[in-house]
Design a protein that fits this description.
Blueprint lengths: L1 E5 L4 H13 L3 E6 L13 E4 L5 H11 L3 E4 L6 H6 L1 H21 L4 E7 L10 E2 L10 H19 L3 E7 L1 E3 L17 H9 L6 E4 L11 E2 L1 E3 H16 L5 E5 L5 E2 H12 L5 E4 L8 E4 L2 H6 L9 H13 L3
Parallel strand pairs: 1-2, 1-4, 2-3, 4-5, 5-7, 6-15, 7-12, 8-11, 9-14, 10-15
Antiparallel strand pairs: 10-13
Helix pairs in contact: 1-7, 2-4, 4-5, 6-8, 6-10, 8-10
This protein binds uridine-diphosphate-N-acetylglucosamine (UD1).
Uridine-diphosphate-N-acetylglucosamine binds next to helix 6 and strand 9.
């Protein structure tokens, strides 16, 4: 296939480009404005340095390259920032995505794979969530993604284009070959922050809340290895290309780990303790968020290969360690 990957120089995008490249079956074009992505993360494909808000250039690229498929990652992803700067999030995530969906559907793109998020569920009353749950985001980031989901669903209903919407749970870890990983310097993800603390790049890691209604009082999440998440994108394309219909699918393992369990695992990987403090809850953090993943397992030919916390923490740790 002739594939456009937007945001392909970013964390998840670069892992997808690596798998697409290794398959040897596709022509890959990456559009990235390099605001957070890195050129060196791009192991395959042709980079077109461009902002998706530059509509004329985007239109021109589609007319020139005749893509079969679009995998769309480019977006802002920091939840607290979305609360402070909602317009930036709606412009970049929703308006630019709407344009991209429009131009893709008008230029013969057959398949559109979209990065969505578990943030569309907000703070659900139940901890294991399936795709049919009411959608109630609690921040502009979640809304910006949910609105894009709807634009995509409606556009595909009205045109020939088909889509897969993937709702990511907590993406973590790094390429097991050690070539790429999470590069974003302001990353706030638990596993990255904890690995950096273990390696002396930060003074301490804070546990945000110890009084949740969970077995050990700390937040529980469904951590999915980035390479498994990446392979779900390739499986999505194969599914559509073999006649599958449009779908919205949770991407997680269906298993939850608490903050304490994650920190204990990273301590094991590191071999010695590091400084952990306990603080208040962070605003907007649900107690527990775990994917019901039966739909993706039933729908796609997708076999997670790194479904254990140790591998996730170890690959994340090795990636941070390369800087030494
Ligand atoms: C992440 C994603 C969000 C996505 C959600 C889906 C990021 C920045 N956020 O949010 O887009 O919608 O998964 O599940 O990728 N924690 C600490 N100390 C820290 C950092 C985190 O105790 O220093 C705790 C949090 O309170 C939470 C857990 O660790 O219980 C995971 O937090 P984090 O890695 O920030 O991800 P989410 O907030 O779950």
């Amino acid at each position: 296939m002739n594939i456009l990957v937007t945001g392909g120089a970013g964390y998840i995008g670069s892992h997808v480009v690596k798998l697409l490249g290794e398959s040897g079956e596709h022509t890959i074009t990456v559009v990235d404005n390099l605001s957070t992505g890195k050129k060196e993360a791009l192991l395959y494909g042709t980079l077109v340095e461009m902002d998706l808000g530059d509509y004329e250039k985007v239109d021109h690229l589609f007319q020139e390259r005749h893509f079969d498929a679009v995998i769309h990652f480019a977006a802002f992803i920091v939840v607290p920032e979305s609360v402070e700067k909602p317009i930036q999030y709606y412009k970049n995530n929703t308006i630019n995505t709407t344009h991209l969906i429009d131009i893709a559907s008008r230029n013969g793109v057959k398949y559109f794979v979209f990065s969505s998020t578990a943030a569309v569920y907000g703070e659900p009353d139940i901890s294991v969530v399936d795709e049919s749950l009411p959608l109630m985001p609690i921040n502009p980031y979640g809304w910006s993604k949910l609105m894009s989901e709807q634009v995509l669903r409606d556009t595909c209903s009205a045109t020939e284009m088909k889509h897969i919407i993937l709702r990511y749970f907590n993406v973590a870890g790094a390429d097991p070959d050690g070539k790429i990983g999470q590069n974003f310097p302001q990353a706030t993800h638990l596993i990255k922050v904890a690995c950096q603390t273990a390696l002396g790049m930060r003074d301490k890691v804070a546990i945000f809340g110890t009084d949740f209604d969970t077995p050990d009082g700390t937040g529980v999440r469904d951590y999915i290895h980035v390479t498994d998440l990446a392979s779900a994108h390739l499986a999505s394309l194969s599914f559509l290309d073999t006649g599958g219909e449009s779908q919205t699918l949770n991407c997680g393992y269906g298993t939850g780990f608490s903050v304490r369990e994650v920190l204990k695992e990273i301590e094991k990987v590191h071999g010695e303790p590091f400084t952990v403090i306990e603080t208040e809850r962070r605003a907007g953090d649900p107690a527990s968020l775990i994917a019901n993943n039966s739909k993706i397992l039933k729908t796609l030919i997708w076999k997670p290969q790194y479904d254990n916390l140790h591998t996730i923490c170890k690959t994340a740790y090795m990636w941070e360690k390369r800087k030494f």
